[in-house]
C-alpha cells in the first residue's frame, strides 16, 4: 500500500500538467476544476478556468484539459475556438512545444470539426499519422499524452465507422478488427496497472469493455471488478470516483446478462458515491440526473408521463449548462413519446399525443441550434423530425424548407448516413409535390450519399454485413413508402438482389438457386444464372410472386439454405412481407368486387396459408416451445447457468449448490416433456444444460464427482445418433436438415466435448487417489473415439438434394440403407417439424434389433454407435500389421476454457496413458496456419518457401517433443511408422515436416494421417478383413489437357506416366474433351485412381470442391459452369469405388479442407473415403506441377520396393492368388519425399515436398496395382 500512497493520482486527465503549473495554488485550482468537470459541475469548472488558472491557450496541455471538459459539456464550437487559438499561438511562436503535443491538438481540432460541422476532411489521415507516431514507442514507455492519443484515435475510428464507408475504400488498414483493438486495450490496461497508473488504466478498461466480445467478456468483467477494488483501496477520491464510473458501465453491460450481479455492482457504486460525494445533487449533478432518468424508466407511469418527466430533466440539465445530459434526456423523451403515439394514435387523445411528439422533436433541434452548435446531433434530430412530418403530417413543403435551411447553414456537411437520410426524405417530398426538376436533383444527391454509407458498397447496394441487419434490409423494403403493395415489390427485388450477390460470390450454387427460383424457369431456359435473372426481371411482381410462393413448400426451400448473410430470418421476413403485400392486394380486389372481408375460418387465400406456414417455420427455427410455466422454468435454468460464467472470484456469491441442484431437477422435467412432445433439439439442448449444471456443482462445491453427468450425456448420445439416422431415411422430414443447421450445439457434437472433459477429469482424480481406473480410462477413450469419425455426413447437411440422391443411390445399389427402425414415415408437414416420437428414445435404442441396424457394408462410415471404433478393434488392427506402428490420437480436452491438448499412443497390445502437450494450443496452431499458409479464402501462393520457413516450422516442435521424450517408456521409438489422428487446425499443417533434432520428422519416420480412428479401422477392414474380389477397373489414370501447359518439365509428366504404366495396370483417360458422365462411369468399381490436373477448392461450400476435367471447367471454376466438365464432392458421394481403393490426387490443394464444428474434414479426401477409398494421397497447398509429377513418379517407383506379406486370404478369383501381398504406402511416401529433398536447390524448401501427405490405411493390396 505504500506504493499506492506515493503514486501521483489526481483528477486531471493529464497528470504531467500539475508539474508544469508554477504554484501550488494553481495546482489546487486545476484539481478543483478537473473534479468539477468529472462530476458535472461545469459552471464551477468554467469559473476556475476563467479566473484562477493561466490562460488555457498558453499551455498546450492545459488547453487539452479544458477542451476535453468542453466536449464533455457539449460545447464543440467553444472547443474549436480554444484549440485554434492554442495552435496558432504555439505554431507562430515556435516555443519548443513537442511535435506530439501539436499533433494531438490538431487531431482534437479535426475531431471537433466532425461534431460541430459534420466535416471528415483530413480527420482519418491525421488520426493515422498520430497513431503511427505513437506506435513507435514501446508499450511500457508510453507517456500520458501518448496514451490519450490512442484513446482519441479509437474514438474517432468508431465515430467514422458509424457514418461512412470512406475508410473501407480509402485505407482498409486503419480500422483494425474489434478483436484486435480489444486485445490492444487489454495489453495497455495490464501495462498501466503494473505501473500503478490507475487513473489511465481505468480509461483503457472502459475501452476494452466496449470492444470485447464472446467468452472473452468473462475475463474482462473479472479484470474490471479487480480494478474497481484496487482503486477503492487507494482511498484517493479521484480514483474512488473513477471506480464508481467503471462500476456503472459494468452494471449496464451485465444488466441483460446477469441482472442480480448488475444490481449488486450498481448498488455498491451508488453507496460509494453517497459516502464520498454527499449531497450528490450538488456534488455530482450529472450522476444524479442519470439516476433520475433510470428512476423514470423503471416507474409504472405511462409512456406519455415518462416523456414529460424526461423533458423536465432535460430542461434542468440545460439550465446547468450540461448539454450532453440534456441531449440524453431528450432522446429518452422522444423514444417514450413515439411509443405513446403508437399506443394512443387511434384514441381521441391521439392528436394531443402527436403534438407532444412534435414538441419533443423541436426541443431537441433547438438545443443543438441554440446551445451546442453541434451539426452532428442537429442533423440526426432534423431527420427524425422530418420523418414525423412525412408520415403523420404529410407536410412536404415544410420538409423541403427545413432541409434547405440546414444545407444552407452547413454547406460543407459531409456525414453520409445523415445526408443520405435527409436527401432521401427530400426526394420523396419533391416527388409527392410533383416538382420534377428539383426532384431529380435531390435524387442524385441521395444516390451520391447512399454510396458512401457504411451499409452500402460503391454501387449503392447493401454490403454483405448489412444484408442480415434489420436496420438496413427493412429500410430498403419500406423506405418512405406507405403502400403495402409497393413493399411486396421491394421485398421481392431484395430477395433477387440477395440471390445475385450470392451467385456472384460463389455462395449460392445453381442447385440452391433452383430451389429458390427454378420452378419459375421455362423448360428451355438456359442454366446461365445471368440469363435466368434477366428472365426473372422481365416478369412483373405478381407473376413471380405467384410462382414463388403459391407452392406451400417454398418456405422450406428458403430455410434449407445455409444460415449465412442474408440469414434465414432475413429471408423469411422478406417472404412474409411479400405475402402480406399480396394479401393486401387480394383484399383490395375483393372489396372492389363488393365481397366482404372473409373470416379466418374461410380458406380464401393461399397467401394467408403461406403466411401462417412462414410464422410456424420462424417459431420452429427459433426453437420456441412450451406453455408459460415451461418458459419460466427454462428462463430460470438459463439465468443460473449465466451466473456460473462470471469470474471465479464472484461466482460463489451469486449461485449456491442448492440452486444448481434445483435447476438440474427442472432440466429433468423439461427433458421429459420435450421427449414426449418430439422436440428433439430442445431435448438435446436441455440435456446439455443439465450436464453443464452437474459440471458447475463439481467445479464450485465438489458436491458431485466430475462425471456425475455420465447418464445424461449417454442419453444425449443416443438422441444424437437417432437424429442423425433420421436424416438418411428414405423420406426425412423436409425441414430436418434446415433445423439441424440451426442447432449449433448439435452440429458441434457438444455432448462429446463434455463427455471427454468429464471422463478425463474423473480418470485423473481417481488415478491420483490410487484407485482402479481401468473402467474410467476405457470410458474416456470411448468418448474420444465418439468425438471423431462421424462427420463425413456433415457435408450432406448443406444440401438436401444430395441427401435424397444419396439415399436413392444407396437404396438401389447397396441394399436397404435404413430399415423399419428408422421412422421412415415421418410426417413432413410444417406443423410437425420436430418429428414427434411418442415412444421413449431409450426404449427405441435398446430394443432395436441387430437386423434393424445399419450394417457396416451399407455405408463406409456409419452414424450409429455400433460403428464407432473401440480399444479392442484398434488392438486387433495393430496386431495384424506389425509391432513397428504407433497410432497417435491427439485430443483437445478443452471445454469452457479448461484443459488442453493431450496425445494418446496406441501400440500392439497396449494403450498408453495420455501425454500432455502443455506448450502449444489449438489457438496458437490456428494463428500459425493463418500466418504461414493463409486463410481458407486467401491462401499464400507458395507457402514455406521463403527464407525463415525452417524457424516457422520450429514453432510447432512443442507438438512433437513430448512424444519423443526418452524419459517416457512409451514414447515414440526410432524408425516407427507414425499414424496421426488429429484435431482442429492440426489437420491443416504438415506435421511430417516439423523438425526433430534438426531433421524433418519424415526423414526418420514414415508418416500417415487419418481423419479418425473409426475411419482408419473401416479402411483396415476393407483391406484386411473383406473377401478379395476383382475390381471392374483395376486402375485409372486421369490426365486432363489444358490450353496452357501445366508443367514446365514435360519429361516429368512422361516419367510419371511411364512409372505408373510399369507398376500398375491402368487405363489412361486423358484429353481436352473429358466429361463428367463418362468419368463417373469409369470410376465406378475402380481400385486405383491417379488424377493429375487442376483442382478447385471452395471454402464456403466444400461440397462444390471439384476435379476440373478440361480448360472450360478450369476457367469457370468459381462459377461452377459448365456443370458437365467437373466432378464435385457432391458427385463423388454418388460414386461407388471398389473396396478397397487407392486414390492419388495430384493437384493444387487437393487435400485442402474445411474443418467442421464437429471436428471433421470437409473436402475431396472425405468424399473419396466415403466412396470407398481406403487411402488417399493429396496435397495441402498449391504445388508446382513439376513437383507433383516428380513426387508421384518417385512414389510409384517406391511402391514397387516396399511390400508386406499378410496372412492368407481366400479369393473368389483364383487368378488373384492366395497370399495377400500389400504395399506399404507410408514407406513409399517416406522414400518419395527423401528423393524430392535430395534434388539440389529444393532440398531445404519445405514448399516443394511437404505438401504431399497420405490419409487412411497405410497398406494396400499389391494385386490391385498389377
Report on this model:
It is a single chain. This protein is of the alpha/beta class and 1266 residues long. Helices cover 58% and strands 8% of the residues. Helix 23 packs antiparallel against helix 24 (436-450) and helix 37 packs antiparallel against helix 38.
Query: Roughly what is the average pLDDT, rounded to an integer?
Result: 75
Low-confidence stretches: 1-8, 168-179, 519-526, 595-605, 616-625, 730-735, 793-800, 810-866, 1118-1122, 1210-1218
Radius of gyration, in angstroms, nearest whole number: 35 Å
What structural class do you assign from the helix and strand content? alpha/beta
Cα(first) to Cα(last) distance is: 82 Å
User: Largest beta sheet, briefly?
Assistant: 6 strands, mixed
Oligomer: single chain
Per DSSP, the total helix count is 58
Helix-residue proportion: 55-70%
Shape: globular
Q: Approximately what portion of the residues adopt beta-strand conformation?
A: 5-15%
Count the E strands.
22
Structure in a nutshell:
The chain is of the alpha/beta class and 1266 residues long.
List the keywords.
1266 residues; alpha/beta; six-stranded mixed beta sheet; 22 strands; 58% helix; 8% strand; disordered N terminus
